[in-house]
Amino acid sequence: MKAILKAKESAILILFAAVFICFAQLSERFATPDNLFNVARQYSELAVVSIGLTMVIITGGIDISVGSMVGISSILVGVLGAKMGLNVWLACLLAMVGGLACGLINGLVITKLRVQPIVATLAMLSAARGLAWILSGARSLSGFPDSFVALGQTAIGPMPLSVVVALVLVTLGIVVLRYTALGRAIYAVGSSEEAARLSGVSVFRIKLFAYAVTGLLCGLGGVIMAARLASSVPDAGSGFEFEAITAVVMGGSSLKGGEGSIIGTIIGVAVMGIIRNGLNLIGVPNIWQVLFLGVMLILAVLGDNLRTWIRARQVTG
Amino acid sequence: MRTKYAIYAISIILLISFGLSGCTRRVEKPAQTTTPAQPAKSGRKIAFVMKLIGIPYTNACERGMKKAADELGIDAVFLGPPTGGDTIKQIDIIEDQISRGVDAIIISPNDDQAVKPVIQKAMSKGVKVFTWDSDAPESKRIFYVAAADDVGIGTEVIDRVAKDIGGKGKVAVMTGSPNALNLNLHVQGVEQGVKKYPGIKLVKPYLFNDDDPQKAIQLAITTLQANPDLAAFACVNSPGVPGAARALIQTGKEGKVVVWGLSLPSENRDYLKQGVVNGLTLWDPAKLTYVTTKLVNDYLDGKKPVNGMEIPGIGKLKVSPTGVIIMPGAIITKENVDQFDF
Amino acid sequence: MKSERAHSSIRELPALVFLGLIAACLWIFQPNFGSMTNLLTTAREIAVVGIMGVGMTMVILTAGIDLSVASILAFAAAVMGRMMVGGSSIWLSVLAALGVGTVCGAGNAVLITRLRIPPIIATLGTMGILRAGVTLYTGAAWIGPLPNSFAVVGTGYRPIIVLTLVAAGFGILLSRVATGRYVYATGGNEEAVRLSGISVSRTKVVVYTLNGLLAAVAGIIMASSMSSAQANMAMGYELNVIAAVVIGGTSIAGGQGSVLGTIIGAAIMAVLYNALILLGVPIYWHKVITGGVILTAVLFDRIRLFERK
């Protein structure tokens, strides 16, 4: 019990519980499985994308192009699958490859060309979004085969398929980060590139991996979104980057690198989801949600700072 | 040890503050829907989901909704994404209202195609869906309330422009976002109408201002620079007209370029009077939303709209078999602009 | 000092050349570009982004960032607009706008220096809070029309004059005054600065507060040009400003860059946007081209660094 409480994620977990309880009190529809699964469905894309972003942030970098990568992937599914009539599953695969390609470009520009992550991904944010608009002619695309549409609505038991996929990936991510050498290397690069390099870790490979995986996961996110909406929207994922960063930071990752966990991030995503959903259910205008999230973000970081400060005081006596 | 206490302290503070804010909100809510003169239909909940919120047009819609909701004693909320053209956020909002268990959702979709699945989902869960202001004709929505024929009003605009420029010249078309069906239909109306005037040439590409007032001004200015001999602006969404007007004032061309469009008299009163804008053609969005609220409420009571039915204070409605209801609109010029309060 | 200045003029040269090239092409292919009204309108856009860019340059020089500038702009403009429409004098309203901007900037500064929240997060939070705040404050309604006498502020040569004053003033501050040197130093090596007894906090407080103030100035110009203030004005502008700073040669890692570079960066973006519209390029190509320009500018910078090594 003590170990759980001491964990970094305890703060965000308690925040989640507090928010959950409040909304459960304020609205009878909130705590119903139907509603909660709906929220999970709406946030499964963000969850998947945040897995990759967590890894990127742990290595000390950042990626603000995630939203645009989701967008281009969603459009690729639409253009290839609906407009050009390719086999829709092939289109999904190609869309994910597209996301991976963007991620690789990000990674290479950052590692080989030594461009600052925020700048490189800022460029990708514009370029990918623009490409999405060009390919789609700035119009949304629909006309997917029924099998694809059905996929967006299927559920395994009560859980929507996209939630199951997200959970599987989250578990995979947790396992990789915590229990594999790859995971340890990611943390090492974030803590100190020099030390990592000296102990034989290829910093270049690890960073490239992080950005590439993020791209791939964005590709998957775009596919999930296209299935969920049964259409490809050129603006898909717009603003995702800010939401994803908020979730990762709320979940305890430090932007300096070396710290963080996927568990924390997912709880962060969950907090954001229930706040938006809860406020919608009690009829609060959407604009308050933006306010709430801004406040939440600052409080979460403050909470973390407080913890660090208290810990430091403990050490020095 | 102290870490634990710190965390507990923070969460207790949060719980208390949330609880308190929750209590105050609970108290506020009943006050919003006033007690009705008619027998209470309270407990009935409807939600309007607009393309966006925060421009004068949408504020006017909300006023109309509130007026009708108060008269009927039902709970109505007016929602929408904070920025223009955000299809996905709009769909998310609709999904949340389905979860909330509202009786009816009335949508003005940013994208008529993308919104089809969520409308289907709502209807399958017993939530009645209608559209207003902009349609999703291929979806399962029950009916669509429009003011004016979407195509016809576009033709009206170009007809008025043509009259004021003598049937020839270059005309720039300003619209909002490329996926909004109603705007595309208005533009279609412009394109159809312009065929009557071989001397008029529409400037391509059309200007998309995404319902952003600053963008409207910028696009108008650059168009004026690219086409110094521009004869007129034909604007089919509400930020377009004041945007074109400001652009003309800033470039010193006011009075030299004709401006007609769909926009609110309240936004353009001064421009009309000073002759910067030649005229507007619009309906009262508040009245449109008022009528929609009442028609939806009637439908939920089992009363379907009938062709030729009369609404007090509005006039006769035209109802077509495909479910489109047309409300009478108005032409607004500097002569009659003061009659309108929207 | 002299070598610093010589170094800085070389830094901005590629950007300047690029700007010259675009402008020249436009002049040749689209004579309308050179018309006074077009130039002045473009100039105003440069002024708005440029003024915010000056503040952002200082922030980025300290290895920080401020994502909330667009929201501060909107909030300041809204407060000013409300007052004007309510009958207050123009000067008082403008002063109020400046005050709001300064307070917001100071708020950011407190979060970053006192509460030790990383700048990107603190300003991400305030960006959302202020934007929501302005929507609630305006009731999502449009504030206007603003008095005609005020409308002239945003027209003609005035925005450019303001930009020149701001750029010159801050340029001098950064290169000649002690505080300016501390700004560069903080970005270069914060620890070293702290160890040498200079207050890093104070430098940061100055920088973020001024940034808020400058955002308000930009907001005054923008509101004047629109003759109104709206909750969603300048949406997304923070990325435009950052792009201008980056294109102008300022390094995101801090410690290197200049105000002049940022102005050129803002000019490049505005002229490019103007060109795309004048040439009738479809809207969807704009973003790709913008992304390409940002990347090219940064790569140019990288290459120069490699060559020097």
Structure notes:
The complex is a heterotrimer of chains A (317), B (342) and C (309). By secondary structure, chain A is mainly alpha-helical. Chain A has helices at residues 2-6, 10-26, 33-58, 66-83, 88-111, 117-136, 146-153, 161-179, 181-191, 193-198, 203-229, 240-250, 262-281, 286-316; strands spanning 141-142, 155-156, 159-160, 231-232. Chain A contains 14 helices and four strands. With 342 residues, chain B is an alpha/beta fold. Chain B folds into two domains: 36-147 and 285-328, Response regulator (Rossmann fold, 3-Layer(aba) Sandwich), CATH 3.40.50.2300; 150-282, Rossmann fold (3-Layer(aba) Sandwich), CATH 3.40.50.2300. Chain B contains ten helices and 15 strands. Chain B has a seven-stranded mixed sheet with strand order 2-1-3-4-5-14-13, with helices on both faces. In chain B, helix 2 packs parallel to helix 10. Chain B starts with a helix and ends in a 10-residue tail after the last strand. Chain C is an all-alpha fold. Chain C has one domain (2-308): ABC transporter involved in vitamin B12 uptake, BtuC. Helices cover 78% and strands 0% of the residues of chain C. Chain C has 13 helices and no strands. In chain C, helix 3 (69-85) packs across helix 10. Chain C is globular. Chains in contact: A-B, A-C, B-C. Chains A and B meet through helix 2, helix 3, helix 7, helix 13 and helix 14 of A and helix 1, strand 2, helix 3 and helix 4 of B.
The name CATH uses for the topology of the largest domain in chain B is: Rossmann fold
Instruction: Give the class of chain B from helix and strand content and strand pairing.
Output: alpha/beta
Number of spatially distinct domains of chain C: 1
Count of discrete structural domains of chain B: 2
Basic shape of chain C: globular
Q: Main sheet of chain C, how many strands, which sense, barrel?
A: none
How far apart lie the N and C ends of chain B?
A: 62 Å
Number of helices of chain C: 13
Kindly report the spatial arrangement of strands forming the biggest sheet of chain B. 2-1-3-4-5-14-13
Summarize the amount of helix of chain B as a percent range: 40-55%
CATH C-level category of the largest domain in chain B: Alpha Beta
- Helicity level of chain C: over 70%
The helix/strand class of chain C is mainly alpha
